[in-house]
Amino acid sequence: MSSLTSHHALPPFPDNVTSAPLVSVSLAKLEAGDEGASKAFFTACKELGFFYLDMLGSTLGEKIVAEAEELNKVQAEFFKLPNEVKDIYGRPHLHPFYAYRFGEGEDFDGKAIRNENYNLRKDDILGQCERLACHSMILQHQQLFERYVYHCRAAVDCLLEHLNTHLQLPKGTLAKLHRIHQRSGDHVRFTQAPPQPWSDDRATRGQHTDFGSLTILFNWLGGLQIRKPNTDEWVYVRPIPGSPVVNLGDAMVKFTAGILRSNVHRVVPAPGEQGGLIRNSLVFFSRPEDSVVLKRLSGGIIDAQPVSEQPELEMTADEWIMKKGTGQLPGVFTAKGGFEYKGYGALPATPAPRVAPVAVKA
Ligand SMILES: O=C(O)CCC(=O)C(=O)O
Ligand SMILES: [Fe+2]
């Protein structure tokens, strides 16, 4: 596998930092319906909401790994474009969310730097909407993007099917909420952070849960941290060649009334020697279809989850993404059916559009 990835060309992730206890789940085994792998996967989705998806030995998985390596080169090329060129594709003028964006920082010498990301939506890539303007170098790699989207979605569909089974939902329940050819907030994200000193402020502001369903994240360097459940302890996630990190987002918590976990995480400078390098990560976010209302599903083991008297924010996936993605819903949404606002500033002034009873994790 090491020849399939470029990790060997980078300084190693240090051994002297505590790393996150992510289990490894084999995609090949899940594809083959292996019961042990499926159980371990479901446990990881409930307990941590993060795991490694080992792509080795899966034809689909190895394609995804090879394509991620190619896209990693494309993103390095994209971020090298002059700032004024990248700004053409920036938010909010191009789009409030599916666009280029940067936050300002300082390098070790106090020089201004950009921490950048660029969201490319699935519906643009697959020609399912009027395409947002993008640079010609993105268009030159159209086929690669298309293959990547189809392949990541095939892996996501496999995971959703296993979840569907464990949740004892009617066959195809989750699949029907995530049809690839319907409009949704699925997107590919390029990210880049230059070497920079630790900043408490940036670390705190960066804490988040993902908004959607399942995220497939390729890391080449450390820097991703997760907060261990029920603690204030942050631990680094060690990058493993050929095994992207998969995590669950808010939608899965809402659909399952808190059975599944969307864990808080953040990105900080890579530890050790790796901290001297530009850090890129490549993210594929899957989301429910735009028109799906984010609320608990009926059926299977979800029906046994308690219902709280507290009102729940209830809106479509599209509304949720746009509000969360543009800072209108501060705070994180984790496993207990509610927001955590601590440390995230003031609550939004206007209440959310609709309310419904909230489900609280047992
Ligand atoms: O860069 C990373 O490792 C994680 C990025 C992330 O959490 C996100 O973009 O939501
Ligand atoms: Fe994230």
Characterise this structure.
The model is unreliable at 337-362 (pLDDT under 50). α3 (59-79) crosses α7 (142-166). The protein has a single domain (2-356), classed as B-lactam Antibiotic, Isopenicillin N Synthase, Chain (Jelly Rolls, Sandwich). 28% of the residues lie in helices and 21% in strands. The protein is built from 11 helices and 15 strands. The protein has an 8-stranded mixed β-sheet. It has 362 residues and is α+β, with helices and mostly antiparallel strands. A hairpin with a 6-residue loop joins β7 and β8. Residues 189, 191, 210, 217, 219, 224, 265, 267, 281, 283 line the site of 2-oxoglutaric acid. It comes from Kwoniella newhampshirensis. One of its GO terms (molecular function) is oxidoreductase activity. This is Fe2OG dioxygenase domain-containing protein. Keywords: Iron, Metal-binding, Oxidoreductase.
Compose a concise summary of this entry.
By secondary structure, the chain is an alpha+beta fold. It is built from eleven helices and 15 strands.
Class from secondary-structure proportions: alpha+beta
H/E element order: EHHEHHEEHHHHEHEEEEHEEEHEEE
What name goes with the CATH superfamily? Answer: B-lactam Antibiotic, Isopenicillin N Synthase, Chain
Strand line-up across the major sheet: 1-2-9-6-11-5-4-3
